[in-house]
Design goal:
The complex is a heterodimer of chains A (164) and B (331). Chain A has 164 residues and is α+β, with helices and mostly antiparallel strands. Chain A has helices at 30-37, 93-100, 110-122, 129-135, 146-157; strands at residues 3-4, 8-15, 18-25, 56-59, 62-65, 78-80. Chain B contains eleven helices and twelve strands. Classes of the chains: A alpha+beta (164), B alpha+beta (331).
Amino acid sequence: MEIEKSSGVTVKLKVNGRTSELRLDSRVTLLSALREHLVLSGTKKGCDQGACGACTVLLDGRRVLSCLVLAAQCDGREVTTIEGLARNGRPHPLQEAFVHHDGFQCGFCTPGQIMSAVALLEEDRAGSDEEIREFMSGNLCRCGAYPNIVAAIRDVATGKGTHQ
Amino acid sequence: MTAEFEYVRARDLAGAVATVSGDPDAAYLAGGTTQLDLMLKDGVVSPARLVDIGHLPLRGTTRDRDRLRVGALTTMAELAADPVVAEQVPFVREALLAGASPQLRNMATIGGNLLQRTRCRYFRDPAVAACNKRTPGSGCAAVTGVARMHAILGASEHCIALHPSDLCVPLMALDATVHIQGVRGVRVVPLTGFYVLPKARPDVENVLHHGEMVTRIDVPLLPVGTRSGYLKVRDRASYEFALLSAAAALRIEGRTITAARLALGGVGTVPWRAYAAEQVLTGAPADEQTYRAAAEAALREPFTVPGTEFKVELAKRTIVRILETVSGLPR
């Protein structure tokens, strides 16, 4: 029977283009691996039970909740976090649009909002404000910055971002 | 604190089934949105060994004449994007997109959706002693507690925990079948016979034996000319479990309903097929009077507690509304 066993796990993660090999307790989530082992604290722990979206990252290009994925499940896979969006020292257009539109107040949900928005644009789900709201519904903002979040995403989707 | 567990990555189907079947303390890990939630967050289940099947080749769909074969590891997002689903069983797509959030739909699998556990807060809180589903014979805290997201059909004083799936509602209506791999081979069970009503043993939720794995779900496609729809009623507009939902497929010739399929979510301890309502609908005129009679038939013997009484009328109105929508009856 071809089965690999381990109580601890060795995980090779490619995060924001950089590969790291980690020896972890099998209970460690992708979220904890990012924050505590790779010291990438941009990804936030909100509810830590799949209800708020603050921990959203891209796993093999698709948005997922890193609090509900074991690091062990990500062996050999690619992860993109908020720290990996800037290009040549310039923020991602969505990051600039969130600043321009005041798409946040306390900022705690913002990395998750932006990672989710990056995926939403990739999925072509920004056809209307209604569609943006529906496909951003997995990201809660307790400050209530929703109108400005939608405005920021709409601007980037329609190419109107003034800071691009 | 979550108990330690051994993480095992399965390399093939036979090995995975043999491992879990031979170890009472082992469990499968697929999408993880239920399993890891219950293990790491709520502390409700604590397998000593977790067998990750996420990499097994059980992903994707193939069309086989009048049915769609869906690999159990296909994600909700992938099935929602399937063109055959959109064209031939559009209410399956509607139910998928009404469920969870985009992130969760990228993670959660179709097999896992069938097997997801209830959202009953008393089940998910190990500090609550009385839960027949968690600890057989301990009682039910929900019956005398704060109930709202709970079942009124298939329920009793033993358990009112709701099966929360959206997807399973149209799948029940369609008579989907479940392919199950065990150590001795494959068996096929209709989804309508897959779930077990709680009665005195709410811990037994379905016909799976320990170690058996759901590998495939076959979804019959609707005949051309059949219209379908899914209606979900909930406390907020998106990213929320159903208070009530209904999936309907109707074939109407002239003004007469010649074929009807109806299933309900948000009301049952298992996804609920409304056979009695289908009988009322079939052969009857497609009008509001028929729909109201069908709704009455579907809700004949509810089991309610103070927090769930409102669901009886809400269920009837949800049924009438979806039947009106699907039949194109002007409101």
